[in-house]
Amino acid sequence: MSINENVSMFYNAKPQIFERARNMRKNMTETELLLWEKLKGKKILGLRFRPQHPIDIFIADFYCHPIQLVIEVDGGIHKSKDQKEYDLGRTAELNYLGIEVVRFTNDEIEKDLNKVIKTIKRKCLTRQSEIRESPLQGI
User: Fold this and answer.
1) Mean pLDDT confidence for 103-124
2) How far, in Å, CA of 13 to CA of 19, rounded?
3) What pLDDT, in 10s, does the model give residues 63-86?
4) Beta strand 50-55 with 58-64: parallel, antiparallel or unpaired?
5) Parallel, antiparallel, or unpaired: how do β-strands 100-105 and 69-74 relate?
């Protein structure tokens, strides 16, 4: 991987973010692991998802670079007012970088994983179309 690909894929994430991400990959939640089983190995439309992926100052639960899509798994903590505000700001910053964020609750993943996967596939197809049609593609 070239330096330019490294910079663009990680959006200039600092070494401490990489270290935190590495630790988070070793300690994924049960729900994250459930979803990871369905995402890993290019099982969704041949796209590679990366778990606990550094992006600037953030760590995305799952990231697919070619279509700039983040998938977040929200546990109970995400119900608090402060966390909801933080999540909104974080999503806005990722959107500013051209990255779309899709969120699923632990409950959604645990109760209807097939529906979650169908939603992710639809979102991936939409993102593929958007990226192909983008006038900035290839710049």
Assistant:
1) 97
2) 11
3) 999 999 999 998 766 566 777 788
4) antiparallel
5) parallel
CA dihedral (122, 126, 127, 132) positive or negative: positive
Q: Two tokens at 122?
A: 């639809």
Determine whether 139 is exposed, middle or buried from the number of CB atoms within 10 Å of its CB (0-12, 13-18, 19+): exposed
Domains of the chain, first to last: 3-133 (3.40.960.10)
User: Encoding tokens for residue 24?
Assistant: 């988070």
Q: Are 138 and 108 in contact (CB under 8 A)?
A: no
Structure tokens at 66: 């070619």
- Kindly state the tokens that stand for 112: 């209807």
* pLDDT of the residue at 73: 96
Residue 100 in tokens:
């779309």
